[in-house]
């Protein structure tokens, strides 16, 4: 468990790895601002009127330099912010330090344990006796999951007197979540219900979390309205320009000091991220093969000149495996890894952590784990004496081993979507416009995100005459 929170001279809470990195983080944020024109335009347009004044916003999004620009945009237009990361490896410690020193409460550091990760989410949701946040910026849904599970446990405890039993489930991470909720019930049996009552709405940016939210809407258990920014035009069309490894193939190359050119690379899944993964690997000189369950996507891959096979067809021949399928569990199993070539590289660019079966690898009898550098490890099997190189412990490779999404276009569009959704949700909070449902990003906000970029990118729109418009 993390040690108690610290405070800045002004009293703002934080828990980061090293506050001495704040100066370097500040320099990097300044560079990123130039590459994120939509958020800077948002500050210019909305800063004077302070439309988010009085709003409490909790963020659960990778604590990186681009995220820092989003946080400071929200504070620049009036919000008070508490933030945690949405992945144990994705935090850039210099970004966290700079934000903690200057702008918002931050609870994030690179290399959190799973227990520390959920502790950080708790802290980001903790706004004191007045309940929780008014709004949540989400990337994966973990903060929402904690609230939903907390409310369910509180209601059961009130009705039956029974505390949650973490031992009743097998998943170690779920056990941690239930333990947090159980311990909290003894000090405040209405904590999560108070959070639910104050919480107005959420913006969510991950497809698999959105699917989960739609399921809750269908069965009537969704506790608050959500704007799905993941499917906005400015998100889907421009977010995926970055490819699987947004700084190019650096996540693989820096991690292993191996060249990609001439290697056989398997991309598991040919959705939007998979297409870009394949393109990035092809550009680096790899021979790319994809695996796919969808016939339309398989045909698209073939039309791009990419061979489509099953993982079993190529598992013993390929050099690099990149898992891109969103919510799949155990797409790459320990049996697959045992059949791979010696020193085959395995990485995950899907947004969730179960696509590579790490628990089975970690518990395999006699397996030997050798750490080359942080988040680059070779796992050697005792019977074959050969091993696989797993990046970022099977978690998001671009955030664990590279530098995440580039600021230009990608994060600028994505985070501008969040900013505009948060403004919309806050401004409409008393109108009843948004019910406890999942809403697509309104078209006028999508167009606003695009327009916020144009002036700073030197574009001038042609205006229709009335005759042409008619």
TrEMBL record:
One of its GO terms (molecular function) is adenosylhomocysteinase activity. GO terms for biological process: one-carbon metabolic process. CDD domains: SAHH (cd00401). The keyword NAD applies. The keyword Mitochondrion does not apply. NAD(+) binds at residues 292, 398, 405. Binds 1 NAD(+) per subunit. Residues 240-404 form the S-adenosyl-L-homocysteine hydrolase NAD binding domain. InterPro entries: Adenosylhomocyst_ase-like_sf (IPR042172), Adenosylhomocysteinase-like (IPR000043), Ado_hCys_hydrolase_NAD-bd (IPR015878), NAD(P)-bd_dom_sf (IPR036291), S-Ado-L-homoCys_hydrolase_CS (IPR020082). Pathway: Amino-acid biosynthesis; L-homocysteine biosynthesis; L-homocysteine from S-adenosyl-L-homocysteine: step 1/1. Its EC number is 3.13.2.1. Its cofactor is NAD(+). PROSITE patterns: ADOHCYASE_1 (PS00738). Keywords: NAD, One-carbon metabolism. Belongs to the adenosylhomocysteinase family. This is adenosylhomocysteinase.
